User: Which sequence fits this backbone?
């Protein structure tokens, strides 16, 4: 075992005065995660790590990677590719993210001085200028603590003494190309791990192939949730972590009547279903819903329909570069309603690609976007921009891809092998990993992650501020449905219709 | 007041839907409608127009100038394409179909290699007007006006100028036109170049409303072909106007009531029915009605 556990409690990094002024007020930086000793859980005793270590191959460890480098979804795919390249480079240079198995979800709190306003991040994002750090720290409040520096030495170059090799291909935003590539990577390249998938349609296109060959597979996107698949680990946030905080806030702040426009495929349909199922619980209602095919880029009629319905706010679940034209078109047509989303802004950086006020008043509960005002994120952005100086943005999914690949390397090191069933078991220990977004916990039973969630808002000038902050939200929904992949392997995706609770308590009055 | 505003809004949606169809079809009206070349590179010519205009705007040119630049650039490109490739395929419809498909692949993949998977968009010019709960984009209103102007100009060019006369003669009977001293090679080149230029022009006009990507042209190909084919070849310009008006009349109310997806379904169904009932397109059907009326009157 070469990884270091986080040292329990070191002092806050006291920087110069200048450093201090850059620091976000609400998060003083102390090392969290007091890792005590870890005992091997019973089900792992069946495993002989040494024996499987002998079975491992020679030559590089192959990381299969598919994302869309061209086509409608390239705006996300390129970020994710760069994230993978950065993570692989760091691993081969002997670096790893802090983290350890079996700590569990949770985060340390402390009393600290905070400002009454949230910090505002300027649109000159890549430099991460805090134009307004929230003002004087004039009151005492509960703050949570996190490590400023997360990248440490792993003790070896590569994984298990072998180079980590990125085997990547362009999915071309085309589901059938994805299937071909997944087959090729699994059968011909014989990759040790597959990290792939932006759109849920792409994931569902390749998941049967993944299951056929029992391929260890990471899906790094935020998505609609519900995938309970023994071979698949979902490291992005899901609806219960994003839709619920966002909808709650929007109903509270802007009113109960919402209108949903969503991409017409499984992600949009199911996220809209989540919104519809959840909103009555906080006293709101969906007054209109429209699903838009991915090829549509002309929105005059959609805009007119929204104006006719006259909602308090609009839930936009728009995917791909065709759909993104909704924002400038709506702004040019004078539609200026408050907006919420679980995808827009944090992934396709529409607030940077389109001129203000296209994205003004957009709300999204995210686990990460480039503007996250923490020391560890500033360091991450700096490392990224050194490697890719021309990049415009680092989105939610890119960061997931980055920490996921580091997570795989850590798990394989602990397993002592790249043998896939063993690495899967090792991942099912449950892992904490210190990602740029904050502490992430991979929950073993559901193969989903608990994330820190922040509610990001874009203002008139597309400056981003974080108005609410949840130190950690579990992906709890599959647990409510009784999913435990460690005990009962499954290979399906659940939908909100299958949850009796929503039907019971979500009745419209 | 509100019902008046709703009526205005429906009129506006009708206009934008119709203008979108006409703009998509603009270059194809000339190349498919007049020259009878199934130009599968139509979308890529529009993409070239959008790229030219975007590059021009990024170099500080005002948007209207950038649109003209796109017209000229893609027009010249079309002339070169005609001289080098397309002229070898006149009279061989299927050959032209395959070769223009090849050109479209080269253009889209080439621009992916040269310019990457996407370019920053141009801002939509102009503000908006308000009526009751509705508001209308000034830019789309001006696109509707531009459509009218371009169609009138095209009609004038083909019905009131020597070039138009010679072009129509060449398309009807090239051998006879040559015998009468028309330089048909030149006419073919100019016509193709005009068609390409118009595709570039409308690509540039639609650029602010869409994403600038190598494969962006594909979204215009289906509407363009539907508009031109439903319009028919008897009188291409009247046909294209007729079909975009008719298709927009179907799409707008359905789209407004039931959402844009069903609006699109309605448009495709309408196109199917129209082609079934009028196999030679709206313009041929109109022509026949006019001829019949003239005959009964005589």
Assistant:
């Amino acid at each position: 075992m070469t990884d270091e556990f986080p040292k329990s409690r070191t002092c806050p990094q006291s920087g110069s005065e200048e450093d201090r002024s850059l620091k976000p007020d609400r998060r003083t930086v102390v090392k969290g995660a007091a890792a005590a000793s870890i005992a091997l859980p019973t089900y792992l005793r069946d495993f002989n790590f040494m024996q499987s270590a002998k079975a491992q191959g020679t030559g590089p460890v192959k990381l299969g990677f598919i994302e869309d480098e061209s086509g409608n979804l390239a705006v996300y795919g390129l970020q994710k590719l760069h994230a993978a390249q950065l993570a692989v480079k760091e691993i081969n240079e002997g670096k790893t993210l802090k983290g350890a198995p079996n700590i569990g979800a949770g985060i340390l709190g402390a009393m600290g001085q905070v400002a009454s306003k949230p910090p505002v991040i300027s649109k000159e994002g890549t430099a991460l200028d805090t134009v307004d750090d929230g003002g004087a720290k004039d009151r005492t409040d509960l703050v949570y603590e996190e490590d400023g520096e997360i990248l440490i030495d792993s003790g070896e170059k590569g994984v298990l003494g072998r180079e980590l090799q990125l085997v990547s291909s362009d999915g071309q935003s085309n589901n059938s190309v994805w299937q071909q590539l997944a087959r090729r990577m699994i059968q011909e390249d014989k990759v040790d791990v597959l990290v792939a998938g932006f759109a849920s349609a792409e994931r569902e296109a390749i998941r049967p192939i993944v299951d056929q060959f029992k391929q260890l597979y990471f899906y790094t996107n935020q998505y609609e949730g519900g995938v309970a698949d023994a071979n698949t680990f979902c490291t992005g946030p899901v609806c219960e972590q994003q839709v619920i905080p966002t909808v709650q806030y929007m109903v509270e702040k802007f009113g109960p009547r919402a209108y949903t426009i969503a991409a017409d495929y499984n992600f949009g349909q199911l996220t809209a279903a989540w919104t519809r199922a959840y909103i009555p619980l906080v006293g709101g209602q969906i007054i209109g819903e429209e699903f838009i095919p991915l090829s549509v880029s002309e929105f005059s009629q959609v805009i007119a329909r929204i104006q006719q319905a006259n909602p308090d706010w609009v839930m936009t679940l728009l995917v791909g570069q065709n759909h993104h034209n909704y924002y400038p078109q709506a702004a040019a047509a004078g539609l200026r309603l408050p907006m919420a989303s679980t995808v827009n802004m944090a992934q396709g950086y529409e607030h940077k690609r389109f001129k203000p006020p296209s994205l003004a008043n957009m709300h999204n509960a995210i686990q990460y976007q480039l503007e996250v005002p923490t020391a560890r994120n500033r360091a991450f952005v700096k490392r990224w921009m050194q490697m890719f100086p021309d990049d415009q943005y680092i989105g939610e999914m890119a960061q997931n891809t980055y920490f996921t690949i580091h997570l795989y390397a850590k798990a394989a090191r602990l397993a002592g092998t790249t043998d896939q069933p063993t690495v899967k078991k090792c991942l099912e220990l449950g892992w904490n990993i210190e990602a740029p977004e904050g502490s992430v916990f991979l929950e073993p039973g559901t193969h989903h992650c608990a994330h820190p969630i922040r509610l990001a808002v874009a203002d008139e000038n597309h400056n981003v501020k974080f108005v609410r902050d949840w130190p950690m939200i579990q992906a709890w929904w599959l647990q409510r449905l009784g999913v435990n992949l460690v005990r009962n392997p499954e290979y399906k995706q659940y939908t909100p219709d299958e949850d009796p609770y929503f039907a019971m308590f979500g009745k419209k009055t | 007041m509100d019902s008046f505003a709703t009526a205005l809004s429906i009129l506006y949606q009708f206009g934008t839907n119709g203008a979108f169809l006409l703009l998509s079809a603009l270059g194809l009206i000339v190349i498919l409608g007049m020259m009878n070349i199934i130009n599968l590179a139509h979308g890529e010519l529009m993409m070239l127009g959008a790229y030219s205009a975007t590059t021009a705007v990024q170099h500080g040119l005002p948007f209207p100038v950038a649109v003209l630049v796109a017209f000229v650039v893609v027009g010249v490109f079309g002339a070169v394409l005609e001289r080098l490739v397309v002229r070898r395929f006149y009279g061989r419809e299927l050959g032209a179909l395959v070769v223009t498909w090849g050109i479209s692949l080269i253009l889209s993949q080439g621009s992916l290699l040269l310019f990457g998977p996407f370019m920053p968009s141009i801002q939509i010019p102009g503000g908006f007007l308000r009526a009751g709960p509705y508001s209308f984009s000034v830019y789309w209103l001006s696109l509707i006006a531009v459509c009218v102007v371009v169609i009138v100009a095209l009609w004038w060019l083909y019905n009131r100028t020597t070039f138009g006369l010679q072009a129509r003669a060449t398309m009807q009977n090239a051998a006879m036109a040559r015998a009468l001293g028309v330089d048909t090679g030149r006419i073919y080149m100019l016509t193709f170049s005009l068609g390409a230029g118009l595709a570039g022009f409308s690509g540039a006009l639609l650029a602010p409303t869409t994403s600038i990507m190598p494969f962006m042209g594909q979204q215009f190909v289906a509407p363009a072909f539907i508009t031109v084919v439903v319009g028919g070849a008897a009188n291409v310009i009247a046909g294209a106007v007729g079909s975009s008006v008719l298709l927009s009349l179907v799409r707008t109310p359905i789209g407004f009531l039931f959402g844009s997806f069903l609006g699109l379904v309605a448009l495709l169904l309408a196109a199917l029915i129209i082609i079934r009932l009028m196999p030679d397109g709206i313009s041929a059907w109109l022509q026949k009605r006019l001829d019949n009326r003239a005959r009964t009157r005589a």
